[in-house]
Amino acid sequence: MTTQTKFPTLEERGFGDGGNGGEGSAGRSAGGNGTALSVGPTGIWIAMASITMFFAAFTSAMVVRAGLGADWTRVALPRILYLNTAMLLASSVTLELSGRSLRAAREGPFFGWLMATAALGVAFLAGQLDAWRELAARGVYLATNPACSFFYLLTAAHGAHLAGGLLALFYLVARHRRIARGASGQTILKVTTLYWHFMDILWLYLFLMLALWV
Amino acid sequence: MAACPATGRRMGGGRAARVPQSVRSSDMAKASSESVAPQVAQGFWRKYVFSTDHQIIGKQYYFLALFAALVAMFLSWLMRVHLAWPRLAIPGLNALSASGAPAGLMTPEYYLSLLTVHGTLMIFFVLTTAPQAGFGNCLLPAQLGAERMAFPRLNMLSFWLTFTSLGVLLASFFVRGGPAISGWTAYPPLSALGSITGPGEGLGQSLWIISIALFCVASLLGALNFITTTLDLRAPGMTLMRMPLTAWAWFVTAILMLLSFAVLLAACVLLMLDRVAGTSFFVPSGLIVSGQMIHGHAGGSPLLWEHLFWFFGHPEVYIAILPAMGVTSHLLSCFARKPVFGYRAMVWATIAIGFLGFLVWGHHMFVSGMNPYSAFAFAVLTVIIAVPSAVKTFNWLGTLWGGRLRLTTAMLFALGFVSIFVSGGLSGIFLAEPPVDVQLHATYFVVAHFHLVMGMAAMFGIFSGTYFWFPKMFGRMMNETLGKIHFILTFVGAYCVFMPMYFLGMAGNVRRYAQFVDPYLQPLMPLQRFITVAALGLGAAQFLFIFNLFWSLFGGKKAGENPWQATTLEWATPGAARAVYRGPYEYAVAGQEQDFVMQNAPDAGPSRARKEAADDNADQISNA
Ligand code: HEM
Ligand SMILES: [Cu+2]
């Protein structure tokens, strides 16, 4: 493994001053300025802003609804959530380690940490399902009272978004050879990493809100 | 800003470095392996239907909006006829819905179905779709000097989601009970309880929610694409402050969409859960509907929906109008042959409107029993929005002042926009005062306000954009004579239909009623009939436009490269180098031979110094 895998600089992202005079139009026409390399990370930041608004709407609805009246009965949060949280945090660390190994051109660890991340992600989702199962066993369902409505709602919405990240991780796992060779997929790795950390932080926020209100 | 010695132009921060050829070509290899629409021959389906080409997608959006507008207009005809002649059976209407219009006479509930679909189509599928996604896709990349949108496949997905969303909405005409009856605002508890609250509140309302949720997703993806394209794919030299005001409008609109549609999506999820999963986010306790006690729900609040909805809803009205404002600025400058007066002020006004738009949603809820102090705060913030709106209006007038006006059809519609926007906007100031709004809320005064300031004004923006960019989009000119007749009829028609509604509102005529049978409304009936006749005429005049559009597609005069002698890159020679050397509105610049200089025209020697002096001058004026 000798391939260099640093991320593109500003010029490589196509912000350079080409295209004047002699080079003519043909050289620019394939999207020479700005490629998937540059737009991916920008796009994911923007998507994260939107997802933040989505969850802000839910959590502000929760705060308002909690303040409305006497029917807000708190439920004890399933203990497994702490384990899930720990696993999700760990998965962010493993994903970072994976990226570092790649930058250090160590293919084995790169792949290993990537697999670990995906596994932790799956385990997290399974753990969330277990939390649901536990609540259901206690007779607490979606419509039992408004507090648990929000518990199911927020965990489900987060889980759905996380599942999207998980799909991206599976894709990376499937293509890890090519990525390690530096042929392609760098952008997807970078974007996935950003998104995954975001899912992590989002969960911490939601967990805090749930702990305070539900 | 530093001047680049090689090209003698001013550079935007940090974008001037030269790229080694090797990197550029490897970039290109990657780019083409990614999602650039390939130049090779493609099949019909890939080229025109499931296309990733932003120009095609833009046209798809445009024609989708045109279709939606026609359907919505037809529904408004049905409603207007019913309002004016409540006992008149409309032949054939029973074919659309046997239960909604037995023997052609619509029930009050069916009137509300028509109202809901009319509003939803117009606001979402016309005013949110044509000016932003339609024109934006066709022109934003060109204006920025980008080759394409940032995410072509996502772009295709956005369109087809919008298409599906439209299909789901229209499908509700054919289900039991017909379309939803809760209006475009879908207030619970009416919208949350199912068919017990009326025909259309069963499957019809569910389809409405699904349709809007899909629309939200499509809009979010579209906004993502627009923002990324604007941030990342601008041509060298195209600094933010050199973007045409249309591009600024699309950019700010996309940000509004990104943030507000996410909230509407969340609200739709909650509403759907209340309907199907038995939760009580919005449904309060102790409801009695149609003589029946509602069980299984308790403790929710319809106000929660109102807050979420209007947190989206107010930005949404600016989503509808900002692109039209951009088009107006763009055209007034071009056809007055003068730079935009106060370009920077225009940009900042756009940003300010976008920002303030998120802080005023409470003005739709003054009568909801909100704390008077909150109402006061919302009122103050609302009136503050009038400031950037006024800045824009005065800058339009300033742009026109002393210009050599070319009264093309496109220009006429842009001028009409200014007139109508003011006629509709001023009444907003009245509505923004809680004590006045208590009187006017839910009357035709509000209907007049938003149809003028949003409905008609944005339509004028769409029309002027169409007449202006048609040669760019389809290579031919539209017929100017027909266009001018269309303008006059539309302009007069719009005023005839919507101005009288102010008087109706002041006389206490409620909105969203299917019939006006109360005695105190009878003296107003002649005015109602006048409005209906005017509405039929206004609608009929639109067929001139449709005819002109389709006839010009095939029979219009072939358009030259830059038929309006405009300055911005969408009119640049195809394939010309897309480097940008100057601001977007250099009309009648002293010391130039022509009366316009295109953005990609390199500076020639001494005139540059003069131009820079002029630039600074303009800045000073706009800062003053
Ligand atoms: C000068 C700035 C404006 C002010 C102060 C203003 C104020 C208001 C207020 C207070 C209402 C609530 C009336 C009520 O329901 O009782 C209202 C309704 C509305 N406004 Fe404006 N407005 C302004 C500009 C605009 C613009 C530019 C648009 C659209 C482009 C717009 C679109 C609407 C719509 C659609 C409604 C009614 C929504 C509904 O109830 O269905 N307004 N406006
Ligand atoms: Cu508003």
Describe this structure in words.
The complex is a heterodimer of chains A (214) and B (624). Chain A is mainly alpha-helical. Chain A has a single domain, classed as Up-down Bundle (Four Helix Bundle (Hemerythrin (Met), subunit A)), CATH 1.20.120.80. Helix content of chain A is 71%, strand content 0%. Chain A has seven helices and no strands. In chain A, helix 2 (36-66) runs parallel beside helix 7. The radius of gyration of chain A is 21 Å and the shape is elongated. The model of chain A is unreliable at 1-36 (pLDDT under 50). Chain B is built from 18 helices and four strands. The longest helix of chain B has 35 residues, at 302-336. Chain B is globular, with a radius of gyration of 25 Å. The two termini of chain B are 22 Å apart. At the A-B interface, helix 1, helix 2 and helix 5 of A face helix 1, helix 8, helix 9 and helix 10 of B. The complex binds protoporphyrin IX containing FE and copper (II) ion (CU).
> Mind telling me the C-alpha Rg of chain B?
25 Å
Task: Give the fraction of residues assigned to helices of chain B.
Answer: 55-70%
Percentage beta strand of chain B: under 5%
Question: What is the alpha-carbon Rg of chain A in Å?
Answer: 21 Å
Order of helices and strands of chain B: EEHHHHHHHHHEEHHHHHHHHH
Characterize the biggest β-sheet of chain A. none
Percent strand of chain A: under 5%
End-to-end C-alpha gap of chain B: 22 Å
Provide the CATH superfamily of chain A. Answer: Cytochrome c oxidase, subunit III, four-helix bundle
**Structure summary, number of beta strands of chain B:** 4
Q: What's the helix-strand series of chain A?
A: HHHHHHH
Query: Largest interface by residue count?
Result: A-B, 57 and 70 residues
**Class by SSE composition of chain A:** mainly alpha
Mean pLDDT of chain A: 84
Question: How many strands appear in the DSSP assignment of chain A?
Answer: 0
Helix and strand content put the structural class of chain B at mainly alpha
Number of domains of chain A: 1
Distance between the termini of chain A: 51 Å
